[in-house]
Amino acid sequence: MLYIHIPYCHHKCTYCGFYSVAGHRDTEAYVDALCRELAMRKSGSPLKTIYFGGGTPTLLPLHQLQKIVETIRRCYDVSEVEEVTIEANPENLTPDYLRGLQGMGFFNRLSIGVQSFNDDELRLLNRVHNSRQAVDAIVDASNCGFGNISVDLIMGLPGQDADGWKKNLDMLSKVLDISMVKHLSCYELTVEKGSILERQIEMGRVALADDETLADQYDTLLEWCRDNGFEQYEVSNFCKPGYRSRHNSRYWNRTPYIGVGAAAHSFDGQRRRWNMSDVNSYIAGASKGEIPHEEEMLTAADAYNEYVMTALRTVDGIDKSLVAPEYVEHLSRSAQRFVDEGFIAETTTHYRPTPKGLLQADGIAASLFV
Ligand code: SF4
């Protein structure tokens, strides 16, 4: 698995807590540094999935993306790659840009950050695009040959009730041809430390949705997905059969991956590594052949807790064969109460969350920690 981080954005969305540089367009030096890191960390094992995330990867001009793609092809074995995703914001996806992306013959999955189809909600989030651009981006991408399109939406926006949320979902099924979209990620609006939203809430300018509204919206989402042939495979992720995100599913199985770029994380099966969140030091370091980063060796307990946390959010649940022998007994004991109460279904091989267990996955997982 390979993850490429592009930490540039047009400007900052109110809810954003990710590391990204807003309003900066000089990405040439960053792309050069990224290509250096790709070459420095090249690996002989065949890649199965590649993911370009951000930030906003589609802020890069096509020739810079092409340079990254060529470096990957040169330094890595891509003969077994199944899925290559690029995250995109609607305002960048002009027909010319989409044709350019397709022309590289590399990307086969497009993840579009729509967030909402309501212009007032988009303004509240400080997104660059409007609803019309979001619709056009999906239609144009589909017409351009992208057969695997994922859409991101955010629930629980200030002032948004279950009906307002339903209108967003209905844009996909009633205004657009739903067959164009194969995957949906729906996250609840959260207040990230240091975000503009955090300040707006502190100043009393906006208020988050209450728990009852959120529960209504989640029910609406589950019903909409059932009606439109989307299966739930993770708390926040839904897809048409056969269209799970292979890259993200591998994260949840604790598959090792290489993350390249400022602020990118990597995992080799035992150690987590994170590159420094600073593009200038990243560019300076790469030119000297030293990527500024830190790393941490996971203990067996950390590895167990991480696995339980992510696996219990998926419908596949916890695979008993992936639990370290020293924690099997602890897991069996602590999971029993949730099995008895119908939150977890136990099979000979797995502990799987039931639908009501999925709703409380994070809380249940915390009770299973060591
Ligand atoms: S939410 Fe996404 S597009 Fe918005 S500033 Fe953050 S990384 Fe950029």
Structure in words:
The protein is of the alpha/beta class and 370 residues long. The chain has helices spanning 28-40, 62-75, 95-103, 119-124, 131-143, 162-175, 196-202, 211-227, 246-252, 279-287, 300-311, 325-340, 355-359, 361-368, and strands spanning 2-6, 8-9, 21-22, 49-54, 83-88, 109-115, 149-155, 181-188, 231-234, 237-239, 258-260, 265-267, 271-275, 293-297, 318-319, 344-346, 350-353. Strand 4 (49-54), helix 2 (62-75) and strand 5 form a beta-alpha-beta unit. The mean pLDDT is 96. Bound molecules: iron/sulfur cluster. Iron/sulfur cluster binds at residues 9, 12-13, 16, 18, 20, 54-56, 89.
Topology, element by element:
Layout: E1 2-6, E2 8-9, E3 21-22, H1 28-40, E4 49-54, H2 62-75, E5 83-88, H3 95-103, E6 109-115, H4 119-124, H5 131-143, E7 149-155, H6 162-175, E8 181-188, H7 196-202, H8 211-227, E9 231-234, E10 237-239, H9 246-252, E11 258-260, E12 265-267, E13 271-275, H10 279-287, E14 293-297, H11 300-311, E15 318-319, H12 325-340, E16 344-346, E17 350-353, H13 355-359, H14 361-368
Parallel strand pairs: 1-4, 1-11, 2-3, 4-5, 5-6, 6-7, 7-8
Antiparallel strand pairs: 8-10, 9-10, 12-13, 13-14, 15-17, 16-17
Helix pairs in contact: 1-2, 1-10, 6-8
